[in-house]
Amino acid sequence: MTVLEQPGAYAPAPPPSWRPRTDAAPLLPDAEPYRVLGTRGTRTAQDGAPGPDAGLLRRLYAAVVHGRRFNEQATALTRQGRLAVYPSSRGQEACQVAAALALGERDWLFPSYRDTLAAVARGLDPVEVLSLLRGDWHHGYDSPGTRVAPLCTPLATQLPHAVGLAHAARLKGDEVAALALVGDGGTSEGDFHEALNFAAVWQTPAVFLVQNNGFAISVPLAKQTAAPSLAHKAVGYGIPGRLVDGNDAVAVHEVLCEALDRARAGGGPTLVEAVTYRLEAHTNADDATRYRTDQEVEVWREHDPVTLLERELRDRGLLDEATVREAEEAAERQAAELRERMHQDPPLDPAELFAHVYAQPTRQLRDQADQLRAELEAEQRSAAAAQSAGSTTAGEETR
Ligand SMILES: Cc1ncc(C[n+]2csc(CCOP(=O)(O)OP(=O)(O)O)c2C)c(N)n1
Ligand SMILES: [Mg+2]
Fold first, then answer.
1. Edge-to-edge strands of the sheet including 206-212?
2. Which residues surround ligand 2, an ion (CB under 5 A)?
3. What is the residue-averaged pLDDT of the chain?
4. Ligand 2 centroid to 1 CA: how many Å?
5. What would be the CATH architecture of the domain defined by 25-35+52-284+292-342?
6. pLDDT tens, 82-92?
7. Looking at ligand 1, which residue's alpha carbon is closest to its atom 12?
8. Which of the listed residues 116, 153, 155 should we mutate to test ligand 1's pocket, taking the one with most ligand atoms within 8 A of CB?
9. How far is CA 192 from CA 166, 176, 210, 274, 312, in A?
10. Dehydrogenase E1 component domain: from which residue to which, for each copy (predicted)?
């Protein structure tokens, strides 16, 4: 007999006023990730779906082909010393592109550091988007103008920002939704909890897309959570959780469009988990062979987001060699333009290093700023002296 089974033992019972507030069943995610690409033959007759719209398929395809090339180019720029660091989203292009294309013109995107491609697919200037990764103090683009928040490096802090913006928009009667992107590791942050709880209680028009790419740097998902899936976490907040194949651009696009429509219409937030895989290392500074095997990566290469789209387009007779070439050539042109622009040094004022640290600079910072100014002026004077000595010598030689 256990202590709790003894007569008169404490038997916890809910107080009389307690009742479940929400029926959990409709909030639960599907057991398997939702898929569209490659499922036509396996769908039941009652689905009767004609398959994804041809125009959408072509737009997604062009964007993922561009995205793949963009990732390669940005990684190459780190080797050429033009980018300080780059977290590649190779393998995750479907999530990035679908997120950007699902947004309405007035909606907001709240990306993390890995979501450069989502910002580019949203139509931002790639050079501006890469500003932070280039080492600039400013994130490079006009956030209110583009409705894309800065690429956020502190994990999950973009989530409460998204909820705050969505809540404010709702108070103002604006039909605007905010889509916030976060990684699997980011779901363990306090900010994730605070954002989802606030959003659920206030029914803010925010949608959370977790790109579960299997790892938080070297930490695999199994060490990150014991939850059945990350989408299940939604139930604890009283909001719907959706599980989707993150390499299936059409499925991600469809699920996000539904969630954003619902949010804008006052139906509250949704948590979407997109199951995907980061094919490259965490960043160019990471060695992924230390924590995962080539065989594991190979399995995911077989489920590549670009190939999945390409196969669907071919099966439907929507893709010929000319279209493939066109998409690849367009991607190549964009990569070449990015390369060329990134090889131009941006005008830099070293004094800006000190400009936005404190409203009232400390004495140490003022001293450092003075020292830097003095050193730069001395450098300029000696360069000018060397130049005039050179021109005198040259003048003497020609005399
Ligand atoms: C608050 C905070 N803690 C730690 C870090 C260091 N850090 C940078 S990326 C990362 C892993 C994040 O993994 P995940 O959320 O799965 O995103 P992914 O990099 O896989 O896209 C960590 C721990 C950070 N940037 N911010
Ligand atoms: Mg991750």
1. 108-110, 178-183, 206-212, 270-275, 241-245
2. 183-184, 213, 216
3. 93
4. 46
5. 3-Layer(aba) Sandwich (3.40)
6. 999 999 999 99
7. 216
8. 155
9. 15, 21, 10, 16, 35
10. 65-348
Q: Domain-by-domain residue ranges, the chain? A: 25-35+52-284+292-342, 350-398
Distance 124 CA to ligand 1 centre (A): 24
Ligand 2 centroid from CA 185, angstroms: 5
d(CA 163, CA 131): 25
Q: How much is the average pLDDT of 291-314?
A: 97
pLDDT in tens, 260-278: 999 999 999 999 999 999 9
Query: Hey, what are 193's tokens?
Result: 């909890």
pLDDT at res. 44: 47
**Average pLDDT of the residues in 71-84:** 96
pTM: 0.90
Q: Find out whether the beta carbon of 217 lies less than 6 Å from any atom of ligand 1.
A: yes
Is 111 close to ligand 1, i.e. is its CB under 6 Å away? no
pLDDT tier at 392 (50, 70, 90 boundaries)?
low
Q: Is the distance from the beta carbon of residue 9 to the nearest atom of ligand 1 less than 6 Å?
A: no
pLDDT at 395 over 70: no
For ligand 1, pick from 158, 217, 233 the residue to mutate: most ligand atoms within 8 Å of CB.
217
Report the separation in Å between the CA atom of 278 and the middle of ligand 2, taken as the mean of its atom positions: 8
Our answer on whether the CB atom of 155 is closer than 6 Å to any ligand 1 atom is yes
| Backbone phi and psi for residue 147, each to the nearest 5 degrees, phi listed first | 60, 35
The closest alpha carbon to 179, from 93, 110, 264, 92, belongs to 110
Residues in the chain, how many?
399
CB atoms within 10 A of CB 194: 14
